[in-house]
Amino acid sequence: MRVFIYSLIPLLSLLLSGCAGSPTTRISPYSWDDPYRKAENYESKNPESVIVTEGDLERNYREVARIYTEGRPKDKQEAFSLMRSRLSSFRADAVIKVRKKKNKNYEGIVVLFD
Question: pTM for this structure?
Fold first, then answer.
């Protein structure tokens, strides 16, 4: 019985360490038929041109999706950088109303300028 329990310890530690990974992002479009969902139609842009802010914008825009970080970025700057680099390939213009969630990940609203 002891041998069986001790043989499970390496397996459990491998499973637990496999859950930790590098931070990444996930995008959730508002509508299945939204053209934003077929993002391959858009040209990529420089990540630094994507606006990421905790506030709102004083300009006309259309909300198209939500973006979430996963893997707990170490700080707000890393989260913003992840969002910029991911959305630059989809021609998004900005991420607004970014907030930190209880699980230490971030979420924001992806917008396209009118």
Answer: 0.70
